[in-house]
Structures are given as C-alpha cells and as structure tokens.
Amino acid sequence: MDIIKHYFPEITEQQQEKFSRLNELYRDWNTKINVVSRKDIDELPTRHILHSLGIAKVIQFPAGTAVMDVGTGGGLPGLPLAIIFPEVKFHLVDSIGKKIHVVQSIAEELHLQNVTASHTRAEQVHERYDYIVSRAVARLAEFYQWVQFSFKKTDAPNPGLYYLKGGDLTEEIAESGLVTELFDLKNYFEEDFFETKKVVFVPSVGKER
C-alpha cells in the first residue's frame, strides 16, 4: 500500500495501517463474495482504493461535514475516504444487503467511528448531506435524479456531487443538462489506469442550466 503514501504523503502511520488492513480485508472478503472483480483483485490498491481517493485530490471535506456514498457496493469510494477524512461523517448506502454487511464488518474491524452503512436506496434516505460521492453506478442523468433532494443547505465549500467516471463523457453530460466541472485523474496519478478516469463535480446550488 506504499502507493497511497506516495500520493498522500501527509497521512499518519495509523491511517497507513488502516489502508494496509483494508487491502487485506477486501482480499479476504473477495474469496466469499464478489466485492470487486476477481480479475482486478491484484490491482486492488490502484484500481479501487487509490481510484476512490481521486475524490480527495479535488475536494477536501471539512471536519464536521456529512457525505453520502450512493451505491457503495463493498464500500468504495466511501471507506477509503473515511480513512482519509476521520473528522467527516460518512453514510454508505447500497440496495444489496450482503454488500452492506461487508461494509459494516470492515468499518467495525478498522474502528471507523465515522461510518454508518444502510441497506437502502438513496431515494429512501431522508437525511441531507453536504456532499454525495459515488463510483460509476449509472449514467449521470439517472443518478442525479436519485440524489437531487439529498443535499442540505450548507456553508461548506463546493458542496455537491463528486462522481467517479471514465471515458468520454461529452454526450452523457449533455444529456443530463447539469452544470458540471471535470477533473482528470491523470493530472494527479501517473498510472496508465487513470488516463481516462475523471471526477465529475455537480454543484448542489445553481444545478440546472
């Protein structure tokens, strides 16, 4: 897990230990349930954990803010972000119960007091959040319909959706009709995997064109 320390040299020794343990726990769980693609398991630190942390390169969530990770699956990007931002509250939701069980187990194992996980859909969550994160769950237009009422009025900087996506997003963004800002992860990470990977930022104020 040296790759995390390489790109986030400010992390503490305790955080580095949590990332190493996270890597081990995912490998262990993946033998029981398909948390990440089996062909990807050897690339877990780069393609899943570091990829999740691409969001931390474009936004620093302030202490005391609240983040919802929608369609978290086995906890990505929420769990890596919760390690990086221990003073931020993370609510990880997914409609597949067995994956939420994995998230709850890992959060407990890592003593992540800032994580809650729920077996539910985003539309059924009544709380409001400063930020929403997700990793390529659906096309942007569809995804935004699920979360558009989940934002709180906030003084936090740059509130909104931070969505990890890959490829040419021109058509998808046009279709959504949303104001967006794109961050190319190749500007932050040098591995070939990140060449076409992006964070799509949709502000939660002044949403529609």
Q: What is the 3D form? A: globular
Helix content: 25-40%
Low-confidence parts lasting 5 or more residues at pLDDT below 50? none
The chain-level mean pLDDT equals 94
Q: What's the Cα radius of gyration?
A: 16 Å
Query: What pattern of helices and strands is seen along the backbone?
Result: HHHHEHEHEEHEHEE
Q: How would you describe this structure to a colleague?
A:
- 35% of the residues lie in helices and 19% in strands.
- It has helices spanning 2-7, 13-30, 44-52, 54-58, 78-84, 97-109, 140-147, 170-176, and strands at residues 66-70, 89-94, 115-119, 131-135, 160-166, 181-184, 197-203.
- It has a 7-stranded mixed beta sheet.
- Strand 1, helix 5 and strand 2 form a beta-alpha-beta unit.
- The longest helix is centred in the N-terminal third of the chain and has 18 residues, at 13-30.
- The termini are far apart.
Please give a handful of descriptors for the protein shown.
7-stranded mixed β-sheet, 209 residues, 8 helices, alpha/beta, globular
